[in-house]
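Module 6 notes. Inverse folding takes a fixed backbone as the condition and produces residue identities as the prediction. Think of it as a translation problem where the source language is geometry and the target language is the twenty amino acids. Below is one complete input and output pair. Work through it position by position during the lab.
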C-alpha cells in the first residue's frame, strides 16, 4: 500500500515572500504567523514576506522558516492530506515532529528561535566554516577526513550533511575545512565550495549549544507521536517521544543523515514525498537518491490544490 511522507527543508531554503499567500488566504495560517510574532516579539510578516537582511541570519532564519512550514502544514492538513511518516533536514526536523503530533507548533517555533541564537553565537565569527563537496563518494570523504584527523583535535573537520549521492557538506574549524577542501579536490572531488554561513553547523564544536538547548527542551511538554518521524541523528524512525529531547540535543552537533533517512523511508514503504516549504531543495536531492518515487512540492497556495489533485490522480491510476 502506498505511503506518504511530509518532508521539510532546512536553513538555506528561506526566501523573502515565503508564506505570504497562505497568510492572505487562510485564517489558520494567519493565526500561526501572528501568534509566532507575538510570542517571539518579532515582526514575523516583515521578516518572512519582505526583502530584509535578517532573514538570512541564523538567529532569525530558523524561526521564520519553521513558522512558514508549519503554517503551510496546517492548511494542507485542513484539506485532508495527512502523512504516514515525516522527516526534516536539520532545522526541518522540528516541523517533522510537530507534524507528527509530538510537539505544539508554538513550542517548535520558540525552540528553533533559541536554537538559532545558540548555533550562531557558540563559535566566534570566523573561527568555523562549512564547505560543500560535489562529485565524491561519501566513503572516500570519510577516509580522507579520517587521515586528516591524525595530529588534530577530534572534530576539527567532520561531515555535516549527507545530502544525496555526490553532495556532501563538511564542517569544522575554518583552517581545517579549507585544508580538507584542498585534499578532497586532490582525492577526486569535482567541485568544492566554501559556504556563506555564520558558523560550523552540525560540528562537534557545537556540543555546548546542544547542552544549552537541552535546558530549553526540558521546559517543553511533548506529546505521544501520532505517526513516526525519522531523525537526522540515526536515519531511523522514532516512535517513542521520550527519545526526542535527547536526539534534538545531539542533532545540533551530529551529522545530518538525510540521504540515509530517505533511503530508510523508502525501505519502510514510503513511495510518495510531499516537500512543504519554500524551494525544491529536497526534491532535487531525491532525484539523486531514488528517481522512482513521486515527489510533490508545496511552496505556494496554488501548490496545495495541484498536489492534492496529483495525489488523487496517482491513486486512481494505482
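Target side of the pair, the amino acids:
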Amino acid at each position: 500500500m502506498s505511503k506518504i511522507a511530509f518532508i521539510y527543508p532546512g536553513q538555506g531554503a528561506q526566501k523573502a515572500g515565503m508564506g505570504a499567500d497562505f497568510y492572505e488566504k487562510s485564517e489558520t495560517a494567519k493565526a500561526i504567523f501572528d501568534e509566532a510574532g507575538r510570542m517571539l516579539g518579532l515582526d514575523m510578516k516583515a521578516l518572512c514576506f519582505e526583502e530584509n537582511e535578517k532573514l538570512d541570519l541564523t538567529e532569525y532564519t530558523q524561526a521564520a522558516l519553521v513558522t512558514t512550514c508549519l503554517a503551510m502544514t496546517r492548511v494542507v492538513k485542513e484539506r485532508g492530506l495527512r502523512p504516514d511518516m515525516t522527516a526534516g533536514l536539520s532545522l526541518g526536523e522540528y516541523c517533522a515532529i510537530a507534524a507528527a503530533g509530538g510537539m505544539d507548533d508554538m513550542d517548535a517555533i520558540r525552540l528553533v528561535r533559541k536554537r538559532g541564537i545558540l548555533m550562531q553565537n557558540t563559535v566566534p565569527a570566523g573561527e568555523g566554516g562549512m564547505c560543500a563537496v560535489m562529485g565524491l563518494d561519501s566513503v572516500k570523504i570519510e577516509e580522507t577526513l579520517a587521515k586528516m584527523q591524525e595530529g588534530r583535535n577530534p572534530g576539527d573537520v567532520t561531515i555535516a550533511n549527507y545530502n544525496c549521492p555526490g553532495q556532501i557538506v563538511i564542517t569544522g574549524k575554518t583552517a581545517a575545512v579549507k585544508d580538507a577542501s584542498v585534499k578532497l579536490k586532490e582525492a577526486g572531488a569535482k567541485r568544492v565550495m566554501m559556504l556563506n554561513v555564520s558558523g560550523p553547523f552540525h560540528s562537534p564544536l557545537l556540543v555546548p549549544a546542544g547542552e544549552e538547548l537541552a535546558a530549553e527542551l526540558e521546559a517543553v511538554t511533548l506529546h505521544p507521536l501520532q505517526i513516526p518521524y525519522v531523525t537526522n541523528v540515526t536515519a531511523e524512525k522514532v516512535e517513542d517521544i521520550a527519545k526526542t529531547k535527547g536526539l534534538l540535543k545531539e542533532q545540533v552537533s551530529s551529522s545530518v543523515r538525510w540521504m540515509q533517512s530517505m533511503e530508510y523511508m523508502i525501505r519502510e514503504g514510503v513511495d510518495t514525498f510531499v516537500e512543504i516549504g519554500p524551494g525544491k531543495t529536497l526534491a532535487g536531492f531525491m532525484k539523486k537518491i531514488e528517481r522512482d518515487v513521486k515527489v510533490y512540492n508545496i511552496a505556494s497556495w496554488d501548490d496545495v490544490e495541484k498536489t492534492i489533485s496529483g495525489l488523487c490522480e496517482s491513486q486512481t491510476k494505482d
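Reference fact for the lab report: The longest strand covers residues 157-164.
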